[in-house]
Specification:
With 250 residues, the chain is an alpha/beta fold. The protein has helices at 40-47, 69-74, 91-101, 109-119, 135-148, 165-180, 192-198, 216-222, 230-237, 243-249; strands spanning 2-11, 14-24, 29-33, 55-60, 63-64, 76-79, 153-157, 184-188, 201-206, 209-214. The chain binds adenosine-5'-triphosphate and magnesium ion (MG).
């Protein structure tokens, strides 16, 4: 599970995250939705231990990130929006390197690496250099690294960007299976259909605060009810559409 208590992040005088509290339970896929600049990536990077919060508390699988960072990070998988991969490694070398970082490079790691490459349909390319990979292949490689050490919670920033329909389906299926096995998943996305299809609950974040939270049905009710498409619900909850402004300018 992932638990956030009154999480705050200031960049100088600017408040990017303004008191976020959130619980993602074991087995839950939780969607993190919000306009550009709302504070999603900042929050996810804090959970991953890459950014230090200004204040607040983060628990990853019961481990406090401030006092027990190693255990928290060891039980978490993080898939960043703009991953960095060493281009001069092969896919298999990259995963072995990653396993080393997590201290799981002992016996049997070769089998686990192959298993993950096969799962993400990269088996044929295990000995190819990452620099020759397409965007979608790199994306799938990063996912295979994030799941390699069997994390109990996973944080994903924009997983579907640039994936072809087959890749997107594969990722959805993997996430669903992982959640069925009890993994807690917190996922930011701008693709509302993905959120609607995959997420048990959704938090809508605006200017660093959660302004609405619930199932898709509950969010519909919050935004005024009806059978609105999630796009309309999202726009209502985050300040409406820009059509009038566009009309005034053009
Ligand atoms: N290192 C930084 N220094 C100063 N301000 C930053 C820094 N990183 C992010 N910000 C600001 O914090 C705010 C939140 O950024 P963040 O990347 O968390 O948004 P986001 O919700 O992930 O947006 P997007 O949907 O575009 O990915 C933005 O206004 C951004 O300009
Ligand atoms: Mg972002």
């Amino acid at each position: 599970m992932i638990a956030l208590h009154d999480l705050v992040k200031h960049y100088g005088r600017f408040t990017a995250v303004d008191g976020i509290s959130l619980d993602v339970k074991s087995g839950e896929i939780h969607g993190f939705l919000g306009p550009n600049g709302a504070g999603k990536t900042t929050t996810l990077r804090m959970i991953a231990g890459l950014l230090r919060p200004t204040s607040g508390r983060i628990l990853v699988n019961g481990h406090d990130l401030a006092t027990d960072a190693e255990a928290a990070k060891a039980s978490l998988g993080f898939i960043p929006d703009r991953p960095f991969i060493y281009e001069k490694l092969t896919a298999a070398e990259f995963l072995r390197f990653h396993a080393g970082l997590y201290g799981i490079d002992g016996n049997g790691i070769g089998d686990r690496v192959r298993e993950m490459l096969d799962l993400f349909e990269l088996g044929r390319w295990e000995d190819e250099l990452v620099e020759s990979f397409s965007h979608g292949m790199k994306q799938r490689l990063v996912m295979s690294a994030a799941f390699l050490h069997r994390p109990r919670s996973v944080v994903v920033d924009e997983p579907m960007v640039g994936l072809d329909p087959r890749g997107a389906r594969l990722i959805k299926d993997v996430f669903r299976r992982m959640s069925e096995r009890g993994v807690a998943i917190l996922m930011s996305t701008h693709t509302l259909e993905v959120a609607q299809e995959m997420c048990d609950r959704i938090s809508i974040i605006l200017k660093g605060r959660i302004v609405a939270q619930g199932t898709v049905a509950q969010l519909r009710t919050l935004s005024g009810g009806g059978d609105d498409q999630l796009t309309e619900v999202f726009l209502k909850l985050t300040g409406g559409s820009a059509l009038q402004e566009i009309d005034e300018i053009i």
